[in-house]
Design goal:
Low-confidence stretches: none
Shape: globular
Radius of gyration: 16 Å
GO molecular function: sequence-specific DNA binding; transposase activity
Order of helices and strands: HEHEEHHEH
Strand content: 5-15%
InterPro entries: RAYT_transposase, Transposase_17, Transposase_17_sf
CATH superfamily: Transposase IS200-like
Helix content: 40-55%
Mean pLDDT: 92
Protein name: Transposase
Largest sheet: 4 strands, antiparallel
Number of strands: 4
Distance between the termini: 23 Å
Length: 177
């Protein structure tokens, strides 16, 4: 997240949070719900502003900023908390998660290369932040987020993807830019 420390934090950013090895973890509603709950918590309690988002099977795109310029700290805490919650859910509900042993093995394997990860590594380290410093870039990234499930062949219209700001019934509270 150090890439945000060097940036102008008064502007929104296009951010991508990716699961290690691009593992398709967000194919289960329970894991998506944990992401939404955590984002809503950060919005309500930590000053996170989310303008657009989409939860794809292996990653999350969003346009976000923070009220106090601490976006890097919010994302750090969000990633840490959601990783622990989802890994706990996988371990405790193995009867519902047919891939639990494989998933835990993959997260454990990825943690071996980073000292700060105790046992598991869920998220890739970088967030690939892109500063949205023009209306053109904001429009381009908004369209990318809204059409990502369509381009991936998951739905025929972005409005049909449940975990997206393109869906009028989205479970996440987003703000207008």
């Amino acid at each position: 997240m150090s890439e945000l420390r060097k940036s102008n934090t008064d502007l929104p950013y296009f951010i991508t949070l990716t699961v290690v090895d691009w593992i398709d973890i967000f194919t289960r509603q329970a894991y998506c719900d944990k992401i939404v709950e955590s984002l809503n918590f950060c919005i309500k309690n930590k000053g996170l502003i989310v303008f657009e988002y989409v939860i794809m099977p292996s990653h999350i795109h969003m346009i976000a900023q923070s009220l106090d310029g601490n976006l890097n700290f919010i994302l750090r805490d969000f990633k840490s908390f959601t990783a622990k919650q989802i890994i706990k859910e996988i371990g405790e509900n193995q009867q519902y998660e047919s891939r639990s042993k494989w998933l835990l093995h993959m997260f454990e394997f990825n943690a071996k290369y980073y000292r700060q990860n105790a046992k598991y590594m869920f998220w890739q380290k970088t967030n690939y932040p892109i500063e949205l410093n023009s209306a053109h870039i904001q429009y381009q990234k908004t369209e990318y987020i809204r059409n990502n499930p369509v381009e991936a062949g998951l739905v025929t219209d972005g409005e049909f993807w449940q975990y997206s700001s393109a869906n009028p019934n989205s479970p996440l509270r987003t703000s207008r830019m």
